[in-house]
């Protein structure tokens, strides 16, 4: 039985490095022009080549998304872009369109092709068709059950099958949606979704303007398209037994903290699965992992379609609001350790500040693997050397902390309430 690959999103260089530090086997990221996450801070051509080189150095696979659904006017520029990748190609190209496949095979003939979930692959005949046209891996439609997944694996030998196991789910079939374009002019299938599926709606009769008829018993309206977040941590043994090759985490738009925390949990689960391939996870393990997954900004979790179409939409949608549950604050990321002081058991670190941080604050230090601990911020300095009692998001600061920290450690704090009313969050 093959080892499951852990495939992690990398919306920018910081997130790519975090993904690798916290245990990714492979990362996926996109170009600015040809990816379906244009607002994720995607990579320029130079940044793409540098990212591929960084992945090679750390023995991690680099998958480049060119899964935009293109018009005629896009093809020449895409062909030129693919030519520029020839000196240092990625390990695979994520594609969703037959024309793009043709261009990829022409300009990067030795590079593997991975079919995007946007292609809506639901059955073994479709999978076999794509396999016959040069695709080595398919990200199967999220609407498939475990039984359906296993049947595709069995009937199309030699094809790698990849499935999403965690993150936001689109309300439209396999992500193909015109709602954003219709309401805002921003095209979801061209990387610019405004997420109108997360908005609240109420019914209004044409001749009665201003008189709203709630669709649910809630005066604010009804979030009738609002999908829960996917979480399949408990189903990894079954997915492995079904022959899945790679499990994929959604979230190129999410924060570095989200990438770190979710990657770490699934890394631990896969490592445990490798030690006991025939055993199911213990309830204690699952409870610990699930608790950690609630510490990132998330919507209520669901296992999606893994058990088939339950014909119970309430299992997949949350109709009352689209707020994130946010139980922890991402305070800072450790960029560099400048010095250690064994006498005081403290260290001086350079931090990228993500949320307000004060002298005297007690914060949790999240590390790759196991071994989280609590530290106290003993002192703070701004980049110009000026002492500060507190520092703010978007800045870099020097901090003296109790204990010994390391690069890529994350500082976080629990928050009271844990309910974020924002419809769109960086996670």
Strand order of the largest sheet: 1-2-3-4-5-6-7-11
What is the residue-mean pLDDT, rounded to a whole number? 86
Distance between the termini: 34 Å
Question: Mind telling me the CATH class of the largest domain?
Answer: Alpha Beta
CATH superfamily of the largest domain: Aldolase class I
Describe the structure.
The protein has 427 residues and is of the alpha/beta class. It has 2 domains: 5-172 and 226-321, TIM Barrel, CATH 3.20.20; 328-420, Beta Barrel (Elongation Factor Tu (Ef-tu), domain 3). 25% of the residues lie in helices and 25% in strands. The protein contains 10 helices and 23 strands. It has helices at 13-21, 45-57, 72-84, 98-107, 124-132, 146-155, 179-184, 236-241, 256-275, 283-293, and strands at 5-9, 26-30, 61-65, 92-95, 112-115, 137-139, 160-168, 203-204, 212-213, 229-231, 246-249, 301-302, 324-325, 328-341, 346-353, 357-358, 362-366, 373-382, 387-388, 390-391, 396-402, 410-414, 419-420. The strands form 5 sheets. An 8-stranded parallel β-barrel has the order 1-2-3-4-5-6-7-11, surrounded by 6 helices. Strand 4, helix 4 and strand 5 form a beta-alpha-beta unit. The two termini are 34 Å apart. The model is unreliable at 217-221 and 421-427 (pLDDT under 50).
């Amino acid at each position: 039985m093959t080892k499951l690959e852990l495939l992690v999103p990398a919306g920018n260089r910081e997130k790519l490095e975090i993904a690798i530090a916290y245990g990714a086997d492979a990362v996926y990221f996109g170009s600015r022009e040809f990816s379906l996450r244009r607002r994720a801070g995607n990579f320029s051509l130079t940044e793409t080549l540098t990212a591929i080189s960084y992945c090679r150095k750390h023995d991690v696979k680099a998958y480049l998304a060119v899964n935009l659904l293109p018009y005629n006017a896009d093809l020449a520029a895409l062909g030129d872009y693919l030519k520029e990748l020839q000196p240092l190609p990625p390990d695979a190209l994520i594609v969703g369109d037959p024309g793009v496949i043709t261009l990829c095979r022409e300009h990067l003939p030795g590079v593997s092709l991975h079919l995007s979930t946007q292609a809506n692959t639901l059955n073994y005949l479709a999978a076999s068709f794509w396999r016959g046209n040069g695709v080595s891996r398919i990200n199967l439609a999220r609407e498939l059950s475990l039984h359906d997944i296993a049947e595709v694996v069995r009937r199309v030998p030699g094809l790698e099958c990849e499935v999403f196991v965690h993150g936001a789910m689109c309300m439209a079939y396999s992500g193909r949606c015109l709602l954003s374009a219709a309401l805002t002019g921003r095209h979801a299938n061209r990387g610019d979704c405004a997420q109108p599926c997360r908005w609240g709606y109420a019914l209004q009769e044409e001749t009665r303007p201003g008189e709203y008829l709630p669709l649910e018993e809630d005066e604010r309206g009804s979030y009738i398209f609002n999908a829960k977040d996917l979480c399949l941590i408990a189903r990894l043994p079954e997915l492995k037994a079904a022959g899945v090759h790679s499990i994929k985490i959604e979230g190129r738009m999410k924060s570095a903290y989200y990438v770190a925390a979710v990657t770490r949990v699934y890394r631990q689960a896969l490592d445990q699965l490798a030690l006991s391939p025939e055993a199911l996870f213990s309830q204690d393990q699952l409870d610990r992992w699930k608790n950690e997954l609630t510490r990132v900004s998330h919507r209520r979790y669901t296992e999606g379609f893994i058990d088939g179409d339950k014909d119970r939409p309430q299992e997949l949608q949350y109709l009352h609001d689209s707020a994130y549950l946010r139980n922890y604050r991402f305070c800072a990321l450790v960029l560099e350790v400048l010095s250690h002081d064994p006498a005081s058991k403290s260290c001086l670190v350079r931090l990228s500040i993500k949320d307000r941080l004060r002298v005297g604050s007690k914060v949790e230090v999240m590390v790759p693997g196991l071994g989280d601990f609590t530290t106290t911020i003993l002192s703070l300095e701004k980049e110009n050397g000026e002492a500060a009692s507190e520092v703010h998001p978007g800045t870099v600061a020097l901090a003296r902390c109790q204990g010994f920290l390391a690069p890529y450690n994350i500082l976080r704090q629990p928050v009271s309430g844990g309910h974020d009313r924002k419809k769109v969050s960086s996670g």
